[in-house]
Automatic annotation (TrEMBL):
Pfam families: KH_NusA_1st, KH_NusA_2nd, NusA_N
Signal peptide feature range: none
Family from the record: Belongs to the NusA family.
Function: Participates in both transcription termination and antitermination.
InterPro entries for this protein: KH_dom, KH_dom-like_a/b, KH_NusA_2nd, KH_sf_prok-type, NA-bd_OB-fold, NusA_N_sf, TF_NusA, TF_NusA_bacterial
Gene name of the encoded protein: nusA
Cytoplasm among keywords: yes
Main location: cytoplasm
Sequence ranges assigned to domain K Homology in this UniProt record: 233-306, 308-390
Protein name per Swiss-Prot or TrEMBL: Transcription termination/antitermination protein NusA
Annotated compartments: Cytoplasm
Record text on subunit structure and interactions: Monomer. Binds directly to the core enzyme of the DNA-dependent RNA polymerase and to nascent RNA.
Record carries keyword Cell membrane: no
Amino acid sequence: MENIALIESFSEFKDDKSIDRVTLMAILEEVFRAALKRKYGSDDNFDIIINPDKGDLEIWRNRVVVDDGEVEDDNEEISLTEARKIEPDFEVGEEVSEEVKLVDLGRRAILSLRQNLIAKIHEHDNTNTYKQYKELEGELYSAEVHHVRHNAVILLDDNGVELVLPKSEQIKSDYFRKGESVRGIIKEVELRGNKPAIILSRTAPEFLEKLFEQEIPEVFDGLITIERVARIPGEKAKVAVDSYDDRIDPVGACVGMKGSRIHGIVRELGNENIDVINYTKNDSIFIARALSPAKVTSIVINPAVGEEKARVDVFLKPEEVSKAIGKGGVNIRLASMLTGYEIDVQRDDVENVEDVYLTEFSDEIEDWIIEEFKRIGLDTARSVLELDVEDLVKRTDLEEETILDVQRILREEFEA
């Protein structure tokens, strides 16, 4: 009966976790062999027969018959006299199989067996969960809010598996109620101790990419490819798209008539503003598009130095500068994230194409003086000459004498 009771303790988990028969047999045998090894020092000469469906368990110890007084190992050998108590016609050299009852292992060993059994099943279940969800990293996933904590939301999926949506992975405007369905991507799956930790994210750029795949058929079918994504979650995002089919307008297909296609994505992201632009491998054109809605006059790309990002000077008309930068600098930050360049916005006040940038005078004007003019948005010769000396003294930290000297040098250039 004690065998059946122990098997039943396993069945409780088997029903809940759907452990296959092969795994069930392996776990049970591993647990019993560990107990036998502790009790007898070795489990090599034991046969374990398990029928978990019926709750049957048999343990048989196999020992070799030796002459009386020549037993060296009680676990592997049995004296002739003891063997003949089991079966009167045993002879020296034959093998005796004797059933071992669980009660023979002792009460403490039986309790330990049950604990080990439970631990092994949990370990198996956790390992399976880890493997299953590890394969889903980066995929769109839905789960139901189980309870809300101050630093995370705990979710349960249809399999009863727990997922965590940390505060850092939530959009600022997110508000969740118990029982509500939440979408995100599985950002990371890791084992913490023996328990899998499944982290959901709604702020990762990949979440926006997966929403495009789900909501826009051409993206799902591969007719439109998402080349790059940059997000400031809950505020604004920029998505660069391309198509290998010249008949398809990738931006128009993603946005839809009057924004009909992208509206669902915007709503899912808490009204995050989404700019969709055409991708190109031409960096200058791509940077100009990334800064939309601003219209760029010209671009100068400076190569990267050491580990620093490559920088680019973008020149715009004065009325376009604020559009390029965006509220709180959001637009230019996203453009930098999308293109991979550090972007410096410069005012292009030049109406006359014969104007000259101040940097051209670095052999006559010290760099720190040029930087002082650039700090107030003056980066060309004409922009400095067009302002009064008195105005320049007020707006810069330069002396009147220095400003007059600079204007003289610039004026001579144009006269020449």
